[in-house]
């Protein structure tokens, strides 16, 4: 028997973690976003965009993302979570090439709008896909899939910086990354999954959630949970946005830090986000999502108040940098917890995971757009230390909204039915968990 045939038969008996299925989509999304992000300055120069006009075309991408987030549940109902994720991912890959090759400003704005629209579709569908996997395995996975996105974006950013330094043309660089992403998404699209919950399509029972009949009358609690989750989605945008975009300027101008130290602000925040997401699933199993969300929100608030005190007292820049890293550590779990709430929403209230993910994504994108409009004038009027104040306020709002929403919503052991379909791995159908 040829060696490769024997090896293939042996590999069929090995288990491939089921969470890698949606994590692949997160990796694709992060890689495409990170690749374009590093080449934006060259793209702006090529089309002759000023700071104002380039801001306008980037706003077009944000607007497209909001519309795509609203429309995503329709795509999921049509094709199911797997089909919607793969379709949107392939479209995202193709449109990044269009953005990279746009020859003039109007075409660039159009391409960015369309890319943002498909990104919104992909964001919601891949999170809904992750929820279905989480439901079928009864194991938290949102932390690791979101950590995969962050790591993939960082790796793509390093690759983009290297490509730019070596003089690799933008179109060539982005086309190579997009082609690999397209191929990976086609793999997801053509794979036939064994678990019914992963391929929920129009008219399927799992599309509406097993708790539809049991909890459909509890409208008051449903409205409360959706409202509070929406507030939390807005609040975290005022944490992650300024944490990534304004901390470098805060350190350089507010603390007169050297260029290298100032550039470490965004990096410190990002490292904190990734670190906490890598351990989130384990912590959620051991202490519960309510405790994790409470500690995370409190960490954000206290770290930023410490940073504000450092700024007022004229303390060293390293104290501020440590406060920023701690805020990132607290911010990391929030988005995974928000999207993970779609699990309980489908079980307790019969709300499709894509619907909850759409609400979270849309409001988070509104916050991302509005945050610079608020932070800019505040820092101009009262100084850059207001960055600490805005992030602390976002953390405080999270502390008073997210844990309560998760506490009301988290009753998985009582409400999850016993006849869930058993989940199976990719390789050879090895069982993951019999439930």
Number of strands: 2
The biggest sheet, with number of strands, parallel, antiparallel or mixed sense and barrel status, is: 2 strands, antiparallel
Shape: globular
Poorly predicted regions are 3-14, 193-217, 412-435
Q: Roughly what fraction of the amino acids lie in strands?
A: under 5%
- Main β-sheet, spatial strand arrangement: 1-2
Order of H and E elements: HHHHHHHHHHHHHHHHHEE
**Helix-and-strand structural type:** mainly alpha
First-residue to last-residue Cα separation: 38 Å
Relative helix content = over 70%
CA radius of gyration: 22 Å
Number of helices: 17
Estimate the mean pLDDT confidence. Answer: 82
Topology:
Blueprint lengths: L2 H9 L8 H28 L3 H51 L3 H33 L4 H24 L4 H21 L14 H4 L3 H4 L3 H27 L1 H8 L4 H29 L1 H25 L3 H15 L2 H16 L3 H30 L3 H24 L2 H4 L7 E2 L6 E3 L2
Antiparallel strand pairs: 1-2
Could you walk me through the main structural features you see in this protein, from its secondary elements to its overall organization?
The protein has 435 residues and is mainly alpha-helical. It is 81% helix and 1% strand. The protein is built from 17 helices and two strands. It has a two-stranded antiparallel sheet. A hairpin with a 6-residue loop joins β1 and β2 (431-433). The longest helix is centred in the first third of the chain and has 51 residues, at 51-101. The chain is globular, with a radius of gyration of 22 Å. The two termini are 38 Å apart. Residues 3-14, 193-217 and 412-435 have low confidence and may be disordered.
């Amino acid at each position: 028997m040829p060696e490769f045939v024997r090896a293939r038969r042996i590999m069929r008996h090995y288990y491939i973690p089921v969470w890698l299925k949606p994590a692949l989509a997160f990796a694709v999304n992060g890689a495409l976003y990170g690749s374009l992000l590093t080449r934006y300055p060259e793209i702006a120069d090529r089309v002759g965009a000023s700071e104002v006009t380039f801001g306008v075309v980037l706003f077009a991408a944000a607007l497209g993302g909001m519309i795509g987030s609203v429309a995503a549940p329709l795509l999921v109902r049509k094709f199911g979570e797997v089909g919607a994720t793969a379709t949107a991912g392939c479209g995202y890959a193709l449109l990044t090439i269009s953005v990279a090759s746009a020859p003039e400003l109007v075409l660039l704005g159009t391409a960015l709008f369309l890319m943002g629209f498909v990104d919104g579709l992909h964001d919601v569908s891949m999170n809904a896909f992750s929820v279905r996997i989480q439901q079928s395995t009864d194991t938290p996975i949102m932390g690791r899939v979101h950590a995969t996105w962050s790591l993939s974006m960082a790796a793509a950013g390093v690759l983009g910086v290297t490509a730019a330094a070596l003089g690799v043309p933008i179109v060539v660089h982005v086309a190579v990354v997009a082609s690999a992403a397209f191929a990976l998404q086609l793999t997801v699209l053509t794979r036939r999954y064994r678990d019914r919950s992963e391929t929920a399509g129009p008219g399927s029972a799992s599309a509406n959630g097993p708790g539809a009949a049991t909890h459909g009358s509890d409208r008051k609690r449903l409205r409360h949970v959706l409202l509070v989750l929406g507030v939390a989605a807005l609040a975290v945008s005022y944490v992650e946005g300024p944490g990534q975009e304004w901390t470098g300027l805060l350190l350089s101008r507010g603390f007169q830090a050297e260029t290298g130290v100032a550039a470490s602000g965004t990096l410190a925040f990002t490292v904190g986000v990734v670190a906490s997401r890598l351990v989130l699933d384990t912590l959620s199993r051991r202490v519960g999502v309510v405790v994790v969300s409470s500690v995370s929100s409190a960490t954000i608030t206290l770290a930023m108040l410490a940073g504000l005190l450092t700024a007022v007292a004229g303390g060293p820049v390293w104290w501020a940098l440590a406060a920023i890293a701690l805020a990132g550590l607290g911010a990391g779990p929030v988005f995974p917890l928000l999207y993970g709430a779609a699990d309980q929403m489908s079980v307790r209230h019969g709300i499709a995971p894509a619907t909850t993910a759409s609400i979270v994504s849309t409001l988070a994108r509104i916050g991302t757009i509005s945050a610079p409009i608020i932070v800019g004038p505040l820092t101009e009027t009262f100084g850059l230390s207001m960055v600490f104040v805005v992030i602390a306020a976002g953390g405080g709002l999270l502390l008073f909204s997210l844990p309560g929403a998760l506490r009301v919503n988290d009753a998985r052991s009582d409400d999850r039915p016993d006849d869930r379909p058993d989940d199976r791995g990719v390789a050879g159908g090895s069982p993951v968990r019999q439930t």
